[in-house]
Amino acid sequence: MSNQADILFYGSFEAERSWLGRKIRIEYPRPVAAPDTRVVMGDLGVILSLLRRDEQGLEGRGIVAFDSIGQDRLATEDAFLLSRAGVCLVSAIMSDAEAYKNMGLFKAVFAPAAVMFFPLMLEDFKQPSGRRPDEGSKRVVSPGRIWRDFETLRLAAERLERTIHVVTDLGRITLGPSRWIEPLDLMPFDQLCDFMAGSACVVVCTRPGNPAGQATAALSQYLGVPTVATDLPALCDCMGVPRSILMVPPEDPSSLADAIRKVQDDRELASGLSDAALKSSARLEAGAAGVMNDLLCSFGV
Fold first, then answer.
1. Nearest CA-CA partner of 108 in 131, 91, 132
2. pLDDT tens for residues 280-293?
3. Are 84 and 151 in a shared domain?
4. Which residues span the domain enclosing 204?
């Protein structure tokens, strides 16, 4: 593949790939230096940082930002900066997409969770798709860091008296002392996929009033791993009817513990969730491709 790419995507790894018939270069976030691409994409926080640093460097390019902040946390001055730069803001919460338009971000769109994490759809990441949890595995894993409800997770683990592996870079201090919480350092993407795919259950425990967790839930569905998640609009909007995810009320350690125990101990339930997850991921992937193709066409790419 030549160095001339159609899309520059700021992500957590570096690669050159093809997606939806376009060339895409994936890089770690860094100051814009006149990238030779027609479209720049990345997490909203990353795009805002780049705009604050050097708005001129992005002039004349299509800019797509994937919402990781939430409309109630987006500062007015940042909304103005995004609007002035003509940023297309992609949100996985339907009500947030509408609220952004009322803030002057007229290019805001609602899209499935798979769009938020669309590098998963690249060819190199097809390998782990559709794997089943290892036979007899009891491992529970909770990846992620943004707005996770670690206190509810800790209390649920104590009620279970079973270890929950938390993959995060926040460390033991933030998680709090608990004999049942095992903090793990952030992993390379392929290693994280293997770790999740070999687990009995993935837990997405988030706080009310934020858009967190869609990417982790989308990945667990893509891998076919039974998932327990907090019942919040961020997940319900992007997943549709969440038949593939066991949903529990927010800030309810007892319900969370009961749900994890059911998935660990009921093989028939776990198998049904796994089957439903794979069907859900196929729908998410199709939705992601459609939305992103329309966006790229609107930029002439």
1. 91
2. 887 777 777 888 88
3. no
4. 125-284
CB atoms inside a 10 Å sphere around CB 216: 28
Task: Let me know if residue 245 belongs to a domain.
Answer: yes
Q: Mind listing the pLDDT tens digit for each residue in 49-98? A: 888 887 656 777 899 998 877 788 889 999 999 999 999 999 877 888 88
Q: Is 117 contained in some domain?
A: no
Reported pTM: 0.76
Q: Both 177 and 101 in a single domain?
A: no
Residue 74 carries which DSSP code? S
The answer to whether residue 242 scores a pLDDT higher than 60 is no
Per-residue 3-state assignment (H helix, E strand, C coil) for 161-226: CCCEEEECCCHHHHHCCCCCEEEECCCCHHHHHHHHHCCCEEEECECCCCCCCHHHHHHHHHHCCC
Which residues, including other chains, have CB under 8 Å from residue 115's CB and lie 6 or more apart?
66, 90, 92, 287, 288, 291, 292
Which CATH number goes with the domain that contains 207? 3.40.50.2000
In a 13 Å sphere around the CA of 262, the CA atoms on its Cβ side amount to 17
129 and 76 fall within a common domain: no
What are the two backbone dihedrals, phi and then psi, of residue 26, each rounded to the nearest 5 degrees? -105, 125
- Tally of domains in the chain: 2
- Is the same domain home to 11 and 79? yes
Is 120 a member of any domain? no
- Determine the pLDDT at residue 116: 64
Q: Do 105 and 139 have their domain in common? A: no
* The length of the chain, given as a count of residues: 301
Q: Could you give the C-alpha distances from 76 to 9, 102, 119, 138, in angstroms and in order? A: 25, 12, 30, 46
In a domain, 293, yes or no: no
Residues 91 and 61 in one domain: yes
Alpha helices in the chain (DSSP H): 44-54, 76-84, 94-102, 113-116, 150-160, 171-175, 189-197, 214-223, 233-239, 253-265, 267-298
